[in-house]
From TrEMBL:
It comes from Mahella australiensis (strain DSM 15567 / CIP 107919 / 50-1 BON). Catalyzes the ATP- as well as the pyrophosphate-dependent phosphorylation of a specific serine residue in HPr, a phosphocarrier protein of the phosphoenolpyruvate-dependent sugar phosphotransferase system (PTS). HprK/P also catalyzes the pyrophosphate-producing, inorganic phosphate-dependent dephosphorylation (phosphorolysis) of seryl-phosphorylated HPr (P-Ser-HPr). Residues 264-269 are annotated as: Important for the catalytic mechanism of dephosphorylation. This is HPr kinase/phosphorylase. Its EC number is 2.7.11.-, 2.7.4.-. It catalyses: [HPr protein]-L-serine + ATP = [HPr protein]-O-phospho-L-serine + ADP + H(+); [HPr protein]-O-phospho-L-serine + phosphate + H(+) = [HPr protein]-L-serine + diphosphate. ATP binds at residues 153-160. The gene is hprK. PANTHER family: HPR KINASE_PHOSPHORYLASE, PROTEIN YJDM-RELATED. The keyword Kinase applies. The active site is at 138, 159, 177 (proton acceptor), 243.
């Protein structure tokens, strides 16, 4: 199971450390966040103690409204659970009892100056991103007319050259050679380049080129959703290729099913234009227009009229 060390969380979310014992064994493994209003009121059934705990203005106001004895009892009951950390929002002052009991049970205590809702939204988005299942695939990811296209195929088939031509035509490169893919929702994949090779491309015969330095910042994009897979393969005269587009292929990556197109490669075919057409046709299909089905319907109508 993927997890985020608490030290990384503090650094990435820019949290103020109020109390932190040895935290190297504390890891966050869920993107959900808990606001302990019910727990501070003494109700612990179904308490999600494994989540990050965020105390906002409502919880703090309630905590300070009860008498000292009850407050200590509730905080003791609360901190007995193995919570990963407590984060106080809005830069609020920390009651002495809260600090003392956190130290007693050795629970990390942090503070942020962001509003509660803003901080929770940012934290959940951050955790969903870093905890998302991920895989690295050999290929090239490009943004063509807003469609994230993952070019796949054997080494030397022409993926990088196709992407380079697309960049020249005004489209954007995300990753060349290796694509890190994350599943951010049940049906959405995000791709990006590994930090080491970001913005670089290998062109056989020339070597490594820097797309950002050569074509400008408008030629690259850091991340992009993967909408379509295009598989390039050497043209096989013995293989029957789909000429109408009625047969729709698919490919599963991280349990997400993506539409797939297989494009045979041989001298004389302009792959960049074919990829552009595939992207535009994909957008038309998503808007409800399917050219192959439209032609097929016309043929059926003609046959019915003749009969």
């Amino acid at each position: 199971m993927l997890s985020v060390p608490i030290e990384t969380l503090v650094e990435d979310l820019q949290l103020e450390v109020l109390y932190k014992d040895d935290c190297k064994y504390i890891n966050i493994s869920t993107s959900d966040v808990n606001r302990p209003g019910l727990q501070l009121a003494g109700f612990f059934d179904y308490f999600a103690y494994e989540r990050i705990q965020v105390i906002g203005r409502v919880e703090m106001t309630y905590l300070m409204s009860i008498d000292v004895k009850t407050r200590n009892e509730r905080l003791n009951d609360y901190f007995k659970y193995p919570i990963p950390c407590v984060i106080v929002s809005r830069g609020m002052d920390i009651p002495t009892e809260l600090m003392d009991i956190a130290q007693t049970y050795k629970r990390p205590l942090f503070r942020t100056h962001k509003s509660t809702t803003q901080f929770i939204n940012r934290t959940m988005n951050y955790l969903e991103s870093v905890l998302a299942p991920q895989i690295t695939r050999h290929g090239v990811l490009v943004d063509v007319y807003g469609v994230g296209i993952l070019l796949m195929g054997d080494s030397g088939i022409g993926k990088s050259e196709t992407a380079l031509e697309l960049v020249k035509r005004g489209h954007r490169l995300v990753a060349d050679d290796a694509v890190e893919i994350r599943r951010v929702t049940d049906n959405r994949l995000i791709g990006e380049a590994p930090d080491l090779i970001k913005y670089f491309m290998e062109v056989r015969g020339i070597g490594i080129i820097d797309i950002r330095a050569m074509y400008g910042a408008g030629a690259i994009i850091n991340t992009k959703s993967i909408d379509l897979v295009i598989a390039l393969e050497i043209w096989d005269n013995n293989k029957v290729y789909d000429r109408l587009g009625l047969v729709e292929e698919s490919m599963d990556i991280l349990d997400v099913t993506l539409p797939k197109i297989t494009i045979p490669v041989r001298p004389g075919r302009n792959l960049a234009i074919i990829v552009e057409v595939a992207a535009m046709n994909f957008r038309l299909k998503n808007s409800g227009y399917h050219a192959a089905q439209e032609l097929n319907q016309r043929l059926e109508n003609i046959i019915e009229q003749k009969q």
